[in-house]
Amino acid sequence: MITLSLIGIGTGNVDHVTLAAVHALNEAEVILLPRKGEAKSDLIDLRRVLCEQLLNDTASTRIVEFDLPTRDAERQYLNAVDEWHNAIASVWAELMDKHLPGGGRVGMLVWGDPSLYDSSLRIAKRLTDSGRAVEVKVVPGITSLQVLTAEHKIPLNALAEPIQITTGRRLRERGWPEDAATVAVMLDSGGAFTTLPQDDTYIWWGAYLGMDKQCLIKGSLSEVSDEIIQRRAALRETHGWIMDIYLLAKQPLI
C-alpha cells in the first residue's frame, strides 16, 4: 500500500505552510518534486528551499525530482489535458514502483491547495482507478486567492453577495458571470478583464503572491487596466514566467 499525501504549501512562502503540512512532509519517506522546464525553475527552487527548511535534521526522507510531462498545446484543450494527466499518473506510478516497491509514504508538494484549480487529485484518482493500492490523503494549504485578499486588505465577497471563481478563458468567452457580484479570475493568459466594461468595474490584481517579487495593483479598470497589462508583460519578460490572479467587483469591497 502506498499512502500518497497531497500537501498544500500555499504560495511558496514558508510562513504560509501549515503545521499539518510540516508534519506530513516529515512523515513522508519519499517526496516527489516536479521540474517544469527552465522557464519555471523558480518553482522547483522554492520547493527545494521549503524541503530544506521544513524537514527535520533526523528525517530520512528522500527527495526525488522528475521532469513533468508537457501538455500538447495544439490539441483540443480538454482532450489534451486528459492525455497529459494520464502521462503524469504514469510517471508517478513508475517513481513509486522504483523508490517504494514494497509500499510506503509519498509526499507531493502542491501549490496553494489541492482543491482549487489544481489537478493533483484527478491525477491521483487515475492511480486508484487503475487498481493500484494507493490511499490518498489531502493536507489543505493557503490559496493564492486568500493571499490576494489579505495583501489588498479586502474581503472576498461584497456584503451578503455571491462570488464566482472562474478562469480567464471563461471570462473572455462568457463575460461577467450571471448573478455574481464579485468574480475571482485564475489561469488568465493575460488581459481577459479588458473584455469587460471599464468604467464600472474594480480590480484587485496580484502576481507572484507570497514571493519576494510580489506585485499588486488595484483600482477601477478604466484607470489601471493598461498599467496591469504593461506590468504583467514586463514581469513575464524579466522572470520568464508569471503566476497572477485577480478579483473583480462592481463596487469597492470595503
TrEMBL record:
Residues 3-224 form the Tetrapyrrole methylase domain. One of its GO terms (molecular function) is precorrin-6A synthase (deacetylating) activity. The keyword S-adenosyl-L-methionine applies. Its EC number is 2.1.1.152. Gene3D superfamilies: Cobalt-precorrin-4 Transmethylase, Domain 1, Methyltransferase, Cobalt-precorrin-4 Transmethylase, Domain 2. Pathway: Cofactor biosynthesis; adenosylcobalamin biosynthesis. It comes from the Bacteria. It holds the Pfam family TP_methylase. InterPro entries: 4pyrrol_Mease (IPR000878), 4pyrrol_Methylase_sf (IPR035996), 4pyrrole_Mease_sub1 (IPR014777), 4pyrrole_Mease_sub2 (IPR014776), CobF (IPR012797). This is Precorrin-6A synthase (Deacetylating). It comes from Vreelandella nanhaiensis.
